[in-house]
């Protein structure tokens, strides 16, 4: 007997210590036994206070009564194996406290009807409040982030209009119809135009990143003639590469088709080629399309023999506003947005963008378009 009492006391103090209170429900009479801690948890002086289910309904939050009652009824009817509910009860001060209850059927009649259900309850108000505060903070952060993206989007639009006008009128003046401009004036006009175009590119990047972050970037997939695109980009880049740097297009002899957003794929490849041009003093820049044995394009590789990227820096260059290091940024210009945009656009098209590099040897950026062996490559458009 002595040992039994000690065991019960030990169990009681363990449950009290863990903040758990015992309940025991008689399914026949509807009377609930609750351990003394239940009353103190709710701030009531006398224990045990009214232990009927009717009293539970009286102090339970109106919004929680139905769902909690239904879940308990389902449990007693055998629809769920165990009982688990979170609900609010009014404590002695009139404040709402969150309670978590768990239990199971502990005794059944010969025909399987439940006779007794038992379990524990605990006050989880602090956890619930912390979770609610966290959710509120998350919603607030998301709202602020959306507002920032919308502001960037609007600003970019507003900046483009006057800038286009500046570039346009610089072009008109450069024609020097009245022959009144001197050589130095024309050089200044070139500067205005070049800087205007650079600024426009920067604004376009900011607009793209804002759209991507707001989840508003739209992609239109169609069948794209890839070999023609690469040849076209190669011709464009040949004019921009440093003297002596060779620009090569490595393509198979047949036509290549891929499902992509044409303008966005062009933007991605051009971003890699522009970077290659920027960071390559001598040697070559190659835009290659690697095909499967059956001739379908698998990936586009942009390879250069430029300065390369160290492994520590490589880990960060796909992040927004990340440049390999501020030294190169100062030397070569740029915003650090191109790769972040390229990777996000690739992902939206179902592609991948990866990089391998060796410092002083060169870098390869790879746009993976189809998994080897998968049959997702585009078919040429049907001729009618
Ligand atoms: P940006 O070139 O406008 O700064 P990107 O996001 O396109 O922005 O590139 C981020 C950084 O990655 C660059 O600043 C550069 O340091 C590095 N990088 C990208 N491409 C190359 C390359 N081909 N060779 C060497 N470094 C590169």
Q: Domains counted in the coordinates: how many?
A: 3
CATH class of the largest domain: Alpha Beta
Parts with pLDDT < 50 across at least 5 consecutive residues = 372-376
Large-scale geometry: elongated
CATH fold name of the largest domain:
Heat Shock Protein 90
Biggest pleated-sheet summary:
5 strands, antiparallel
Rounded mean pLDDT score: 87
Using only C-alpha atoms, the radius of gyration works out to 35 Å
Strand content: 15-25%
Structural class, judged by helices and strands?
alpha+beta
Any idea what the CATH superfamily of the largest domain is called?
A: Histidine kinase-like ATPase, C-terminal domain
Bound small-molecule species: adenosine-5'-diphosphate
| Oligomeric state of the chains in view | single chain
Q: What percentage of residues falls in helices of 4 or more residues?
A: 40-55%
Structure description:
The chain is α+β, with helices and mostly antiparallel strands and 384 residues long. It has three domains: 2-123, Beta-Lactamase; 133-214, Signal transduction histidine kinase, dimerisation/phosphotransfer (DHp) domain (Helix Hairpins, Orthogonal Bundle), CATH 1.10.287.130; 222-368, Histidine kinase-like ATPase, C-terminal domain (Heat Shock Protein 90, 2-Layer Sandwich). It is 46% helix and 22% strand. It has eleven helices and twelve strands. Strands 2-1-5-4-3 form a five-stranded antiparallel beta sheet, with helices on both faces. It has a five-stranded mixed beta sheet with strand order 7-9-10-12-11. Strands 6-8 form a two-stranded antiparallel ribbon. A hairpin with a 5-residue loop joins strand 4 (96-108) and strand 5. The longest helix has 50 residues, at 125-174. It starts with a helix and ends in a 16-residue tail after the last strand. Mean pLDDT is 87; it is low at 372-376. Bound molecules: adenosine-5'-diphosphate.
